[in-house]
Amino acid sequence: MALEDEFGDVLTKAMRGTRATADALARATGLQASEIDDWRRGRDVPDEAQARALALPLRLDPGKLADAAAQRWHPEHISLPDVRHHPQHPHPSNGYVFFLDGGKRAALVDPAGIPGNLLRILRDGAYHLEYIFVTHKHADHCDATADVAASFPKAKIVMHRADVEAIGSLASSALLVKDGEEVPFGDARIRLLHTPGHTDGSSSYLFKSTLFTGDTLFAGSVGGAYGDASTYEDILNSVRSKIFTLPEDTVLMPGHGPPSKVAWEKEHNPFF
């Protein structure tokens, strides 16, 4: 699976987050504003020296940004026995089912896309769905919530209060979990980490040593900052204070792109 963000995406997010224009970066680095615009639009990529020069005014890591421009890193393949990934057609987003006891206890992360596809996955796996976890309010992560909930009325919907209006009337029955709170799941527990920045209610869910990060953190990048109250700085702080404090071998299952690990993101993500 390809990385969610190419170099131009990383550059665009950093420019938007720091409010840097191509002209301002050109003045700070001696590069041409037209070149910077081309890189931002994905028409070309900078060389090593140019990428390192861009990194400093954007508060990115120079070496990691140069690696991103040269496409020198991609996470190794990760497959977990108790997590199943599925693409959420027609959206370009990831959905997941994680489970215990061969599926006798199961949870769905981010119900989105064509409802029939999700229901077929749940039926084919003979999963007994206990929870529907929603990482944030954007449609490509929650627009099938009502259909899944109708087919599994005993499954509890879990969201953060700041984003729950996205599921409409189901909000009144949702379990509104706060930062650090846990819900029981067989002999395990699921912990919610409030990781605002992409949206105000963006949340990540920790199951054993696997974290479902939604659009807060991708392999080699971060989500865009689209919160009403939260900011680009909040998304960076969410990663540093909530995700990077987890054990190094914690597996990260993002809302887009391939899985990664905490240690790999510390080593390769140019935003940190």
SSE diagram, text form:
Elements: H1 7-18, H2 22-29, H3 33-40, H4 48-55, H5 62-70, E1 83-87, E2 94-100, E3 105-109, H6 115-124, E4 129-133, H7 139-142, H8 145-151, E5 156-159, E6 175-176, E7 182-185, E8 188-194, E9 203-207, E10 210-214, E11 217-218, E12 221-222, H9 232-243, E13 251-254, E14 260-261, H10 262-268
Parallel strand pairs: 3-4, 4-5, 5-6, 10-13
Antiparallel strand pairs: 1-2, 2-3, 7-8, 8-9, 9-10, 11-12, 13-14
Helix pairs in contact: 2-3, 4-5
Describe this structure in words.
With 272 residues, this protein is an alpha/beta fold. It has 2 domains: 7-70, 434 Repressor (Amino-terminal Domain) (Orthogonal Bundle), CATH 1.10.260; 86-268, Ribonuclease Z/Hydroxyacylglutathione hydrolase-like (Metallo-beta-lactamase, Chain A), CATH 3.60.15. It has 10 helices and 14 strands. The chain has helices spanning 7-18, 22-29, 33-40, 48-55, 62-70, 115-124, 139-142, 145-151, 232-243, 262-268, and strands spanning 83-87, 94-100, 105-109, 129-133, 156-159, 175-176, 182-185, 188-194, 203-207, 210-214, 217-218, 221-222, 251-254, 260-261. The strands form 3 sheets. It has a 6-stranded mixed beta sheet with strand order 1-2-3-4-5-6, with helices on one face. Strands 7-8-9-10-13-14 form a 6-stranded mixed beta sheet. It has a two-stranded antiparallel sheet with strand order 11-12. α4 crosses α5. It is elongated and about 60 Å long. The mean pLDDT is 97.
